Amino acid sequence: MSGQPLNLEGDIVELTRAICDIESVSGNEKELADAIESALSNYSHLEIIRDGDAIIARTNFGHASRVVIAGHIDTVPVAGNLPVKLLPMEREQVLWGRGTVDMKAGVAVQLKLAATLDKTNTDVTWIFYDHEEVDASLNGLGRISRNRPDLLDASFAVLCEPSYSQVEGGCNGTMRADIITRGLKAHSARAWMGKNAVHAAADILNRLETYETAEVEVDGLVYRESLNAVVIKGGIATNVIPDECTVTVNYRFAPSKSAAEAEAHIREVFEGHEVVITDSAEGARPGLDLPEAAAFVAATGSVPRPKYGWTDVARFSALGIPAVNFGPGDPNKAHSDDENVPVSQIFACEAALRTWLTAS
Ligand SMILES: [Zn+2]
Question: Which of 52, 284, 292, 330 is deepest in the core (most CB within 10 A)?
Answer without folding.
Answer: 284
